[in-house]
Amino acid sequence: MTDAAKGRQIVLLDGGMGQELLKRSASAPTSMWSAQVMLDEPEIVEAVHRDYVACGCRVITLNTYSATLERLQREKRAELFEPLQKGAIRAARAAVSDARHGVRIAGCLPPLVASYRPDVTPPYDESLAAYRAVVAVEKEGVDLFLCETLASVKEVKAATTAAIESGKPVWTSMTVRDEDGTKLRSGEALADGVAAAKAAGADAVLVNCSWPEAVSQAMPVLTASGLPFGGYANGFTGIEALQPGGTVEELRAREDLTPEVYSAHVLSWVEAGASIVGGCCEVGPAHMRELARRLSRGGYEIVENLNV
Question: Is 248 within 8 Å of 280 (Cβ atoms)?
Answer without folding.
Answer: no
